[in-house]
Amino acid sequence: MEQSKSKLNNKEALKQARSLLSRLSSSGQTDVARELGLSYTLASAFHANSSAMEALNLRDCAVVRAIVELIVRLGISPYLSPSVGLPRQKKKEEEEAGIISHGLSVPNLIPPPQSSSEGILLTSCNLLFSFAMDMDMEKEKGFCVALVVRNYYLIDIIAGFLQVAYGPSLEAGLECEAEAVALEKRRRNIAVGKLEQAMGIFVVGDMVEALLTLLGQKKEEGPSPSSPPPWLNLEAGKLLSRLVMTEGGVPAVIQRLVGGGVKGDVQVYYNVAAHLAKVPKYIATAEEYYRAVCPQLLPFLPYQDFGKGQPGDGEIAQQILRNIHHTSLFLAGTMIVRDPELSETYLLKPILVPLIRWSKSQSESLGSENLGSEGEGKELTENLIVGNLMRVHALLTAGHRGANKVRNLVLEKTRPMVPVLMMLHYLLETSPMSKPFWAKAMPAKIGLDPDKVKQAEKKGYNKNEEMAKRKVETKNANEKSDKRTGLRKGFLQQYVSEKIDEDEDLSTLGRLKAAVTDLMIAHISELPEDLSCLMLSFLSDLETRKFMWPSTEGEFWNALKPSSPRLHTPAEYLSRLLLTCESWSLVVRLMGDILRKLFNLHQSLNINRMQPLYEENLGEISSLDNALQVMQSFEILNEVVGSKALEHDLSAASTLIQDLLNEPALLNDEHMVELMLHMVHNVLNGFSAKFSEEGPDKQGREVLISISTSLERICSSNSLPEKVKRMSSTLNTRIIPILAL
Questions:
Q1: Is residue 49's pLDDT more than 70?
Q2: Phi-psi region for residue 83, left (φ > 0), alpha (ψ -120 to 50) or beta?
């Protein structure tokens, strides 16, 4: 055989191949051993002459593939257990297209004798396996035997090796003599070794495809339909679990299972994710599994513009990437829910550590040139920061089962970053080239010309209708306890339905702005009481020039430009953000903190207005500027959101009013008293609206009585002007009708 193989060129081999196929097609019976041996010889000759394959035409190539197919049908398929491998033997009227050449085809075959079944199966698999291995992927890009084997018959080879290695003995009819037992053991060891080689040589995606195909085979014909045998499920499952833990294994499995699935089939995403989230019993520890799987999910977590709505050659690829993204997001959330500790180590830390390093670098006032070497880990590049912010956003807003636990963990771990996130958000939203997030929601209050305001209001109305429809479609997928005002939850369900607002900015900068907006809204909604001091500092001590970004050029830097003038003041930005969140208790507390800070500034200012401005007074002038800035912030906050907060959160507002009115020092400051009386006015508006039909409850009456007492004290004060006293008296008269209800 070796001699004839070495002498055969492609022309001679093709001639013999056509003769063989013609004889098999016309003959009802055949000498399987002889014809299989000739097929080995011809296939080996074609493989040896791979360099000359470029000269073959399509018909010649079909003959070459037919010979390889013949080896599979004669030497592999007949020896596989039921429901193992592909059903290669077909009726003549069902012969495969593509194998036919010059009217010749691979015929239906008679199973060979059983005396050497295992040896024939292993020999056939070994030969084809050697072809597939002996292929230079860089050089051999055209037609060749190795490429045919890899593309069309890898499943058959893996099935054959699994059969020899783990299936029932094919020599069961023979006497189990010592030599027979030793031979079978040797063959099984060879097959196991070949499977190990295949795991390391073939593309992960090809091996995943082969194993999943084998596991999914079912015999539907005949009196007793069957599924793959238990031994195949066990051993193929082990190999598949190892592949999942190999780099590229997770996306390969997801692509195979849902890549071409129905668009937006959330249940399919969940089923696949739930299965992959389970630690296989073949894996020693859960930590080993998480360490291998979690890093593979990171590239697929951020939502990207997968060419939505763009027809063309790339549409299928875009759908595959979209499905991988959604399933990866489900899988990440499911793994976090099942083991938060391991998920934090292997999924969240790679995302959060660079962000926290970047956050710390802001407070430490490091120069941008130091960002790459600060601390341990990867260099803090722009792509790393932006990508990880989008990953955090995806985990925060995904609408999968158990999403509450994921959100809580993400918020807990990103809490140290809130000051930097607020600065980043402010810079992005107030950039001259940016349209702020509140522009659509409240167009009449942002200084637009009347025509644009009307257009925005009309567009905003349409958007509200669309959002209402979307909410109805997705409410069953979101847990009822997940309601968070302003936060774009249900990220997954919104995008799989492909009902994206036509005005939504899907550029990288637009997605970054959306991500940081949702992060800020989530933190404000979850931790209202803890952010008042931070916001007070933001209003009075903000220095955007100190903000650092890893790059000083490009799209993001042009949008940020910390040293450039902003379109909106910090107070305007913060007021809109708090109004969007409807975090009334935080607003009330912030207003109280601002008033106290303002009072302390007033107390510290002892400037004699008639005294010339000597150099020693410059410190007081700086404090005066600070006081004016704080006063302006209070006025903006009160106008945009403060009055609504005082009316909506009567409990917090009443407590604040009582505390302020019970501070003697404040009652002696005319300006402070006027501001407090404005707050009392808003609180009374809230009481009137809430208790318009029924009178206030016991607690409400006590609050009103306490406020009335404080107002009377203001009226009797000797240090306050008559104007303030009249305001206090007028407000006090409003309390009596409310108490009378």
A1: yes
A2: left
The model's pLDDT over 698-732, given as tens digits with 9 standing for 90+, comes to 777 888 888 888 888 888 887 788 888 888 888 88
- The residue with tokens 């005294």 is 611
Coarse DSSP helix, strand, coil percentages of the chain, rounded to the nearest 5 percent: 70, 0, 30
The DSSP bridge partners found for residue 219 are 226
Could you tell me which residues are beta bridge partners of residue 617? none
Using DSSP's 3-state secondary structure scheme, residue 473 falls into: helix
Spatial distance between the Cα atoms of 131 and 138, rounded to a whole number of angstroms: 16
Both tokens of 392, joined, read: 């955090």
- CB-CB contact of 91 with 73 (8 Å): no
Q: Where are the alpha helices (DSSP H) in 339-417?
A: 340-343, 349-363, 382-397, 403-414
**What is the full DSSP assignment across 62-79?**
HHHHHHHHHHHHHHTGGG
The rounded distance, in Å, linking the Cα atoms of 540 and 596 is: 13
Q: How far apart are CA 128 and CA 124, in angstroms?
A: 6
CA-closest candidate to residue 253, choices 212, 215, 294:
212
By C-alpha distance, which of 312, 227, 322 is closest to 269? 322
Q: Which residue has the tokens 């999924």?
A: 347
> 360, 425, 363: which is closest to 389 by C-alpha?
425
Task: Give the helix ranges, DSSP H, for 542-661.
Answer: 555-560, 570-581, 584-604, 618-637, 643-648, 650-661
Predicted pLDDT of residue 528: 65
Q: Are 575 and 407 in contact (CB under 8 A)?
A: no
Structural Rg of the chain based on CA atoms: 37
For 520, phi then psi, to 5°, come to -65, -45
Q: What is the DSSP letter of 54?
A: G
Burial of 296 per CB tally in 10 Å (0-12, 13-18, 19+): buried
Sign, CA dihedral 305-311-317-320, equals positive
CA angle, residues 475, 478, 483, in degrees to nearest 5: 90
Nearby residues of 348 by Cβ (< 8 Å), 6 or more positions away: 336, 409, 410, 413
Task: Report the alpha-carbon distance of residue 465 to residue 310 in Å, rounded.
Answer: 26
Question: What are the phi and psi torsion angles at 160 (to 5°)?
Answer: -65, -45
d(CA 107, CA 720): 109
Q: What are phi and psi of 565, to 5 degrees?
A: -60, 145
Pairwise CA distance, residues 189 & 176, whole Å: 18
Say if residue 2's pLDDT is above 50: no
Distance of CA 721 to the CA centre of its chain: 61
Cβ-Cβ contacts under 8 Å for 435 (sequence gap 6 or more): none
Place of tokens 């009902």: 499
DSSP state letter for 692? S
Q: Which of 87, 83, 199, 206 is nearest to 154 (CA)?
A: 206
- 592 half-sphere exposure, CB direction, 13 A CA radius: 22
Query: What is d(CA 254, CA 640) in angstroms, rounded to the nearest whole number?
Result: 48
Main-chain dihedrals φ then ψ at residue 109, nearest 5 degrees = -115, 155
Confidence label for 741 from pLDDT (cuts 50, 70 and 90): low
Cα 692 vs. chain centroid, distance in angstroms?
A: 48
Phi, psi of 113 (to 5 degrees): -65, 155
Task: Count the Cβ atoms, other than its own, within 10 Å of residue 523.
Answer: 23
Q: Between 706 and 456, whose confidence is greater?
A: 706
262-271, long-range: CB < 8 A, 24+ apart: 263/319, 263/322, 263/496, 263/498, 264/496, 264/497, 264/498, 265/496, 266/326, 266/477, 266/492, 266/493, 266/496, 269/323, 269/326, 269/327, 269/330, 269/492, 269/496, 270/330, 270/400, 270/401
Which residues, other chains included, contact 701 with Cβ-Cβ below 8 Å and sequence gap of 6+? 695, 739
Q: Contact at 8 Å (CB) between 167 and 81?
A: yes
Contact yes or no for 620/607 (Cβ under 8 A):
yes
Tokens 């305007």 sit at which residue?
572
Which DSSP state fits 49?
T
Q: How many CB atoms lie within 10 A of CB 715?
A: 16
Joined tokens for residue 384: 């790393």
